[in-house]
Specification:
Blueprint lengths: L1 E5 L7 H10 L4 H15 L6 E5 L5 H8 L3 E6 L2 H13 L5 E4 L11 E6 L7 H10 E12 L4 H6 L3 E7 L2 E9 L5 E10 L4 E10 L7 H11 L3 E6 L13 E7 L2
Helix pairs in contact: 2-3
Bound molecules: S-adenosylmethionine.
Length: about 250
């Protein structure tokens, strides 16, 4: 067997981003429904100043701008930001798109709404920045996986899986060592016909994006957010025990 070790590419690296655009984002209809749902939850009576963190190809940002809100979209990937700018141009609307990391942003009491969709900024200093960027009564809205959903229950914590497709074996391993905090993600493909094993392994400190909603809420409270609530994606109040996969987490700054 020949063993090939491949690098794990990350967001912000061109090779990764170009490939990711083919499969990684929710389809446009889902993204538009997410953007609508957030406005339905807030029911704004005035034009909002919105910052969309990790905005990707800008679908949500462009939707809000078309509804006359003033929108800034930020993403670490130049590839995604270029696509987002092209999307805004095509839709004949104005959005400020910035290609940079959140750490490079600096605002104070500026935004009525900050969103991060399918992207939870993991570091404490970034969450503090988000709090600072928001105006009084501003909202931070992001999506969380519902720990009561059976699929998520199965995949919370350490898990392994394998499956066979057309003679190739796909193995996955996701593990966090609770004592050291080291997290490992491994994807291994074994092709018996070609006698090749391909390995992609990513190892590092576990990030807060691995946290479940309850822990994220605790962290936001410690930063100063007072009222934090969960809603279903169609904007209804979430009742404990319900099992949708995704939920909105809405944190308000007073
Ligand atoms: C799963 S995608 C979601 C994109 C978009 N919010 C959506 O829902 O379509 C995650 C996004 O976060 C961006 N991202 C990852 N790390 C980032 C960072 N440190 N700062 C800013 N953006 C980041 C990625 O480039 C990517 O566009």
């Amino acid at each position: 067997m020949k063993r090939i070790k491949k690098n794990m590419f990350r967001f912000g690296e061109k090779d990764f981003d170009l490939d990711y655009m083919k499969w990684g984002f929710h389809d446009k209809e889902t993204q538009i429904n997410e953007a609508k749902s957030i406005l339905n939850i807030l029911k704004p009576k005035k034009k909002l100043k919105i910052l969309d963190l990790g905005c990707g190809i800008g679908t949500h940002a462009v939707y809000w701008a078309k509804k006359s809100h003033s929108v800034t979209g930020e993403d670490i990937s130049k590839t995604f930001i270029n696509k987002a700018k092209a999307n805004a141009k095509q839709e004949k609307t104005d959005v400020t798109f910035i290609a940079c990391g959140i750490n490079d942003l600096n605002f104070k009491n500026e935004f009525d709404l900050i969103t991060s969709i399918e992207f939870f900024p993991s570091e404490m200093n970034i969450l503090r920045k988000i709090y600072k960027f928001l105006c009084k009564n501003g909202h931070f809205i992001f999506d969380v996986r519902n720990p009561d959903n059976p699929k998520i229950k199965k995949r919370t914590g350490n898990w392994r899986s394998w499956e066979e497709r057309y003679g190739k074996f796909y193995l996955e391993r996701h593990e966090t060592n609770i004592t050291t905090g080291i997290h490992v993600d491994a994807w291994i493909t074994i092709d018996l016909r070609k006698k090749i094993i391909e390995e992609k392994i990513s190892k590092g400190k576990a990030s807060q994006s691995k946290l479940i909603s309850r822990d994220k809420i605790k962290i936001l409270k410690s930063i100063g957010f007072k009222k934090i609530e969960l809603r279903t994606m169609d904007g209804k109040k979430f009742k404990k025990g319900e099992k949708p996969y995704w939920l909105w987490c809405i944190a308000k700054k007073y």
